[in-house]
Protein 1
Amino acid sequence: MKNVVIASNNAHKVAEIETVLNFEGWTFQTLREAGVESDPVEDAGTFLGNARIKARAARALAGGAVLADDSGLEVDALGGAPGVYSSRYAGEDGNDAANNAKLLRELASVPDEKRMARFVCTLVFIDDDGSETVAEGTIEGRIGHELKGDQGFGYDPLFIPDCFGGELTLAQVSQNRKNEVSHRGAALRALRAELEGK
């Protein structure tokens, strides 16, 4: 048996992780379920750096195997912003509505063909023995001109993935369909392949 503590209290994230990393004998717990309070300062300049901060902080408190992720949106026309600041793009108290409104303002004069963007997810898994495995996943697309759909969260209503033919946002499809193509799903599949190869 292996118990993995996920450096998050997001139930949706845990469900997605459990679906992909369904190794026999593996169980998963959120920080709360593990009786751990961990909220380290995420001050790295990269998704990998922040995921590593979260993983190492959780391991120091929980011991054993831990999994952490950091993810966000990179917009080419904004030089990769909001990047690691995706969740607080409109300020420390920024919410989804404020973040999306700021993104639309920043891209107001940018034409369709220059609104390319991607979601990025980096995972850091620290095993029982302290060994570290890193995996990354992305989904390419562009930023729309208005919010569409109510199935997602964050920037989903603005993000139009290339894999949907440029027609639908991530917020206009079911959670299952999103999981099939999402950056976190891709990162988890990459992590599984890495772990299976060890």
Protein 2
Amino acid sequence: MVYFENVNKIKYEGPNSNNPFAFKFYNPEEVINGKTMEEYLRYGVAYWHTFTQDLTDPFGAGTAIRPWHQYTGMDLAKARVEASFEFFEKLGVPYFCFHDIDIAPEGSTLKESNQNLDVIVSMIKDYMKDSKVKLLWNTANNFTNPMFVHGAASSSNADVYAYAAAKVKKQLEIGKELGGENYVFWGGREGYETLLNTDMKLEQDNLGRFFHMAVDYAKEIGFDAQFLIEPKPKEPTTHQYDFDVATGHAFLQNYGLEKHFKFNIEANHATLAGHTFEHELRYARVNGLLGSVDANQGDPLLGWDTDEFPTDLYSTTLAMYEIIKNGGLGAGGLNFDAKVRRGSFETDDLFHAHIAGMDSFAVGYKVANQLIEDKVFENLMEDRYKSYTSGVGLDIVEGKTDFKKLEEHALGLTEITNKSGRLESIKATINQYLLRAYAGK
């Protein structure tokens, strides 16, 4: 069956194209710094938003019209696999990601759920043999089922903890079978609604134990994927233990896990934590923890996780600056953890949305690359921190001073002169580079 009848293979046609089913800026074959855009950007499709999401929101039923909605149960799961690989091939993405319950329905028991997964994983594996698409990462959904009302690895119920561990064990096995390059932990309910009934130390200790068991089992079965933690501050809980990258970093250090994990950073989660996307990327990068990216954006007028497709070129440029300075994403990628808007309910909208996101990050990549080649930010920072390259500043950096020596230096100062940060000029420069990119200059 053909699920996307109106769409042929999406091709690059350049910025002057009016074809809604064509890339305007993302040219997968264009070589930058020795790699094609496809190789460097490593785009991925989120199975849950693209093939499972029906666009339900808290105030209304789903609006999505999908050709696979005529099926139910395992027939629906199989139809989604067929549709997904048609979508991957026509869009030309190299990767996809999924949760366990995205690809196969939960059964009434864990055994039945695993049997369903075995059938669908076998089907996916067969499709992958004839496709270039690979598994960027998979994960266990340990937050949707009502049993996870009090959390999973941080649950107050030991039986739930064991059930969550069994689900992760199965997903680690599936990740190895499908050649997954990463494995993600998103603690959707690993947190609390109130401290009034929460033993925080026990919950965090148990979470640390859980991660250690996952590391041990991956080693046992020879699954060498990069482990990733995806931070989020709140929603659905009041406070989640992986609030942001810095909080997650402290957690990893506290439990001796820092050598085993990096971070999967989502733009919308960053803004919910009160940070910019580039802040989270920068913190991860300078600490050697930047692993992968969930490429989306939030609505600044709304206070929840809207998971919109990224179209803000300013944001994609600053994000790609951090990724380039990181030397790329290694085994990670740019996964579009994003969903079409509720009013964009037609099947073709899935292509329009992904094209918009892929073009946006392609523009960001080219602009950020030029900013780095011209050393725009580097020159600014070199000038701003010049006082630390000689004299007392160099002594501070090299650890050759103390409070007494600094006091002696300060007492001898008759005037302190600061330089302007020139923020407005810097932003104008970024705009200039963005407009040059659009003009092809």
